[in-house]
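Aim 2 progress update. The chain analyzed this quarter is reproduced below.
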Amino acid sequence: MNLDIVLPLFGNVDIKVFEKVIKQSLQIDKMPLSKVLVIGDVGQGSLTSPLISGAYYRAAHNLGINTELHIQNHKFVNEDIDVALARKLKTLPKNSVMILNVSNKIGKFDFHSKSFRNYCQKNGHRYLSSSGLMNVKERHLKYFIDSLNVDFKTQHKFGEKIKKALDNASEINIQTKAGTDLTLNLKGRTSINNSGIYNMLGKGGNMPAGEVYIPPIEDTAEGKLVLDGSIRTWKKTILPTEPIVVEIEKGQVKMIRKSAMSNLLKDTFAWAARRSKFPERTKKVCELGIGTNKSAKIIGTTIVDEKKYGTAHIAFGSNSWMGGAIKAKTHFDQVFKNPIFRIDGKLFNF
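Predicted structure tokens:
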């Protein structure tokens, strides 16, 4: 793709923010580095993917880093990555940095490893990953960039406070004024502070960053979940016009109360079940996440919405990669606002 298509939009982009991410998040000056490979796609529904990719490329170039930009076709679930990208990944020097910005997914790997995360881990590549950018329209671009512009050290310290509380918890109860009242067993599970500091070889995470997440003990979640933040469907992220109420029993969706928007979630679970060898796993509660990013807003793209301070999210599906026991092909995060937490019966204050 010719960057001339998106360069006119660079007037809306502060390249200094992307330089800050590269320096503070990846800590380029403190880590061994072979190369930076920025991966985007041609865009799907918006030009956010090529625009953000171009901004990272320009920022890295400004910092004097050996950088390459690759733009492939946009990919849906189960589509293969482009052949040209596969060739580049096979020859990318170890201990490089990958910066991924895709409209939906990067695509399937049919060589060396089965996922982007595994590929990076095996080759010592640090990485930043932004997916689902098809939901970030040009009018939302400012808010997306704002969510990148954080003090990563401060965000990390805040996340560590929450991580310590979750790691020491046996049980957590979450309530909201909208009606959420959900209890999860966390005993023995370890949370992950996704603060945005990715300074270990083979490691990385979402960008924007800003959440602490944990896989609860399987089959223990009980109660009601009222979704009023954003809804991740199998097609895209949606801002609900009314809350969606999900009844959960023994760690699994028991019922979704009928409403004007409830079919969006029902259809998503049905779609996931049809493509799963173990369809019952697609409705299992697999994650509790707590947003810690004070610069993020809910804009209708999960990767940003779930990071907003003052929100939490419950995910359904796979959690084996974060220390849980559920293996599934899908993982859908559902965001709700203004949670109140009680850990082992005591109110938890941030």
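Helices lie at 15-25, 48-62, 83-91, 116-123, 141-148, 152-167, 262-274, 302-305. The chain is about 25% helix and 25% strand. These observations will guide the mutagenesis experiments scheduled for the next reporting period.
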